[in-house]
Amino acid sequence: MSEGRIARVYATALYQAAAEAGRLEIVPRDLGEFVRALEASPELRQFLATEDVSDALKKEVLLELTEGADELVRNLLRLLVDKSREGEVAAIYRAFVELVERAQGIVHVEVVSAVPLPPELQEELKAKVESSLNKKVELKLTVDADILGGLRLRIGDRVVDASIRNRLERLRELLISPVASLEGSVEAAS
Fold first, then answer.
1. Residue 9 backbone class (left: φ over 0; alpha: ψ -120 to 50; beta: rest)
2. Which residues share a beta bridge with 110?
3. What are phi and psi of 91, to 5 degrees?
4. How far is CA 39 from CA 42, 43, 85, 118, 130, in A?
5. pTM tops 0.85
6. The dihedral sign for the CA sequence 17, 21, 24, 29
7. What digits encode the pLDDT tens for the residues 142-176?
8. Which end of the chain is more exposed for a tag (fewer CB within 10 A), N or C?
9. What is the DSSP letter of 116?
10. Does residue 117 contact residue 74 with C-beta atoms inside 8 Å?
């Protein structure tokens, strides 16, 4: 089973348990805090990855670190140690957040513009995309002067490129294409 698939299996089980328990706000918060702490601590990552450390000690340390966290999160971490899947916790968290966001109808949209967008334009863009998708949208804004002007949107694996650079490139391709050459020569001959 691939690593991504393993993470999805654990994430799905965690999602179902959290949904049944009515803790879909608490679990991602607590698991996210642990994942951020794990990513910030090379020592903790090394500790969890070391096979010389007993599972009992790993679980003891994890329980100390997550004291006060939701019990589902603590149980997940213990289970991951039992199954030697400690290295999957970040991928499980990402897959879990995707499930929560999908259930809530949240879509992430990457917006690339040549200059920073003013807040009013951001809100207008967000409202238009939400209206067209019938979903709640979270914008991730990026500035890239190379697009010259306009916008490029990425929604999942779809890209809407309304940038000046893209328009110029399409025009250039039309001008140098054989069809344009052929049409030009026919018009010139008449």
1. alpha
2. 140, 154
3. -65, -35
4. 7, 10, 16, 33, 33
5. no
6. negative
7. 999 888 888 888 987 888 888 888 888 888 888 88
8. C
9. P
10. no
